[in-house]
Design a protein that fits this description.
Helix content is 44%, strand content 16%. It has helices spanning 11-17, 52-69, 84-93, 127-142, 146-170, and strands spanning 2-3, 27-29, 35-37, 72-77, 101-107, 112-117. 32% of the residues are buried.
């Protein structure tokens, strides 16, 4: 899972509440709440699914979108078991600061995209913002580019959330 870096006053409490036993061997929580993991050389995949350039672009977009929207955006790519929204919420719950997070979950095999938000940001990253994000993502996916779709989705959702927040402050 990839995460943007947004800090809130309660990040240290949430990170401290997580047990090191929950993490796989070679993984740690960083000060920002992100998970950093290492693999043994023998465990590394021989053909990574994404290029280094794509992963850097996704990481930079996650960080920029999280900073703009004041939401900890995360991306999950993999199978979603059972009820899609329930599965996505379970994944979001495992991320740092889930109450302040929004997860874009993509199941490539079933071609499903689910966006869920934590309770502290759900009024700002609401169903309309999520629908815009899905629309932006699907455009890239149809062209055969998963990373471009995710980047477009993150940018659209961050901009839409920023607009929602700006309107509330103005009134």
């Amino acid at each position: 899972m990839a995460n943007g870096e947004v800090t809130h006053a309660n990040v240290s409490a949430e990170v401290a509440a997580r047990s090191a036993a929950e993490l796989p061997l070679g993984a740690v929580f960083t000060n920002s709440g992100r998970i950093s993991a290492a693999r043994y050389p023998a465990d590394a995949p021989t053909t990574p699914p994404f290029s280094k350039k794509d992963l850097i672009a996704l990481d930079e977009t996650l960080k920029a979108a999280s900073e703009k929207a004041l939401v900890r955006f995360s991306v999950y790519i993999g199978d979603l078991d059972g009820e899609l929204e329930t599965s996505a919420r379970a994944i979001l719950a495992k991320s740092p600061e889930p109450a302040y997070g929004t997860l874009i979950a993509v199941s490539p095999n079933s071609r499903d995209v689910v966006i869920v938000s934590g309770n502290k940001v759900s009024t700002r990253v609401n169903d309309r913002v999520a629908a815009l994000g899905v629309t932006a993502a699907v455009t890239g996916f149809r062209q055969g580019n998963l990373i471009d779709g995710l980047i477009a989705s993150l940018r659209v959702m961050a901009t839409a959330e920023y607009a929602v927040r700006s309107l509330r402050v103005a009134h």
